Amino acid sequence: YNISPHVTSKALPVIEVKSFKHDSNYTSINTIDIEKGLFKTDSLSLKKWTKALINLKADKSNDAFLELDEILTNARDLLQLGTKTVNGEKYITIKELSRRKDRYSGIAQTYFELGLYEKALKVFNEAILLYPEESGFYQNRGATYGELKQYEKSLKDFNKAISLNPNDAVYYSNRGAAYNNLNENLKALKDYDMAISLAPSLSVTYFSKGNLYYQLMDYEKAIKELSTFISLSPQESKGYINRGAAYAYLKQYDLSIKDFLMAIKIEPNDILTLNNLSKSYCNHKKSKLLIPQSF
């Protein structure tokens, strides 16, 4: 499921935007890049902020957010915390926002991005009580229910979001995923097609549609949709992995090997892809795993 960045219908300017990066040795903060504005805080908050930067760089996102949780709670009316990746580097971002609606969105989206779905759900519930006509809150709560595998509740929220705003492709794409998880495949395909008609460049819809065709064992159609996804998101390994699997089912092992190698180039330590590559080599009547030296 994909959380929508378009929670408010008319976004107001952000007052200040800051982005901080921790250096790679984890032991001290040698560089803090401030893209714009100044970050004003007391010493206790700065200590927690610094610890959070270290944890995030060390791929401990949950630990990072726990350090920020107290700051966020105390500054609920002031700050939006988030995460982003730029050129392979992980960042924590902070925004000082001007509207209460945006603040609820920022808090809940940060929880969502860090996998703290129950906390995100609580904030979205609060937001919907205050803003019952805001489609984005239903969409994002639906995505949260989806991650919690509560697909009926997820579907209900996507329906509400679409009734309030019938022109957002993300809503249809996510509702399609909910239908897919409920085994209502024709409805899922209809929603994926609607999402594509509204936003032809929304790559995740092609990925979801390709996966549905794969589940239905229609591998030719799966390959077509996954190829479009790859053309739009060439640095996403999952497109090559799933297309490679579809090629393998069609016994087009030369093409499956090519896709698995590309996926490994992007994610060298993916054991599942290495196993799939090995199977494709074996099925291609190779006597042993022949991985180029560059890997």
Compressed to H and E, one letter per element, the order equals EHHEEHHHHHHHHHHH
From the helix content, strand content and strand pairing, which structural class follows?
mainly alpha
Largest sheet: 3 strands, antiparallel
Q: What's the number of extended β-strand segments?
A: 3
* Fraction of residues in H or I helices: 55-70%
User: How far apart, in Å, are the first and last alpha carbons?
Assistant: 32 Å
Which descriptor suits the 3D outline?
globular
Mean pLDDT: 76
Low-confidence stretches: 5-44
Evaluate the radius of gyration: 22 Å
Strand content: 5-15%
Spatial order of the strands in the main sheet? 1-3-2
Number of helices: 13
Question: Would you mind describing this structure in some detail?
Answer:
By secondary structure, the chain is mainly alpha-helical. The protein contains 13 helices and three strands, in the order βααββααααααααααα. The protein has a three-stranded antiparallel beta sheet with strand order 1-3-2. A hairpin with a 2-residue loop joins β2 (79-86) and β3. The chain is globular and about 60 Å long. The two termini are 32 Å apart.
